[in-house]
Amino acid sequence: MNWIFIFFWLAGLSLGLEVHQSHSDFIKKAGDEVQIFCSHERTDYRVILWYQQSPGDTAMKLIGYLHYQNPSIEDAYKKAFGMSGDLGGNTAKNASLIIQTLEQSHTAVYYCAAREAQ
Ligand SMILES: *[C@@H]1O[C@H](CO)[C@@H](O)[C@H](O)[C@H]1NC(C)=O
């Protein structure tokens, strides 16, 4: 059986922005669906970006971002990854990254970051 380890860690790009993570780390099986949440209180930050850092790699690769309700996902990640959330309105933000069918190659550290919409 293949076990997948995903360590989910969050970082706020803006000083003073507190970002909350839904899980710190967890183990899932291949084929499982995973949804990780990222939330914060900056009501005017309407973009949430997701990054992946694979084991042994220092690069943080951009998976994509959610702008208001619209996901924009990089080609390499389109097949397996989804995003949901609504960053409009003047309330606290809460968005998620979804991995539809876990594979070994998804073992990574995942980061989310928030910023204003340009
Ligand atoms: C974000 O949304 C999810 C799903 O609706 C919910 O389970 C979670 O508690 C929410 N997080 C916060 C901090 O509101």
Automatic annotation (TrEMBL):
One matching Pfam family: V-set
Domain of life: Eukaryota
Domain Ig-like: 31-118
Signal peptide: 1-16
Record key words, sorted: Immunity, Signal
PROSITE patterns recorded: IG_LIKE
Classification via PANTHER family: IMMUNOGLOBULIN V-SET DOMAIN-CONTAINING PROTEIN, T-CELL RECEPTOR BETA CHAIN
Protein name per the record: Ig-like domain-containing protein
Species the sequence originates in: Characodon lateralis
